[in-house]
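Quick one, T. Sequence first:
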Amino acid sequence: MPPTTPASPSGRPPGRPRSGVNAEVFAATLRTVQELGYARATVERIAAAAGVAKSTVYRRWPTKGALIVDCLLDAFGPAPLTGASRAEIMTSTIRWIAATIGEPGVGDAFAGAFSDAVSDPALREILSARLQDPYRVALQDALGEPERRVLFFIDVVVGVLLHRMGMTGAPMAEADVDALVDMVLTHFGADREAEAAGSGQQ
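Structure tokens:
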């Protein structure tokens, strides 16, 4: 199966490479978040770290949340939805998410945006429409799963990885990522078998 690239609402797939001002700002965003923490990584500080005017950043991203979401899209890039089976696709997806969240600044930025979104409906909409939905659609197509199950997959995987990052300040160890893969595959495999058995009895 060839790699699947989730399309953004603008029609352009998310992901590397980027060039020019955007690349400088994204790099400065992750660096500033890593060094100062999410709350102290203001647009002003990010602009200074990128060597651009604050107005340059605001022309592209009206809010810090919008900047963070585009920065995360750039960090994650296209989902590596390859494999000969559903299990292989899910495994590669989990390992890709875990590895990316473990990159410097990415987990901090991701967790910070989610925390802000709890009390910011506008940011929740940006996270849903620009970050989650393209990957959700790509996973639905690759796995042949309905929306609710793919959303559950995303909730479990991203939730567990961000919780570990938030509680320890470090990405999940490889052995625990292996255990997460086993847990998710067991659930989805068991669910698929149960659904098939139920259909056969009707």
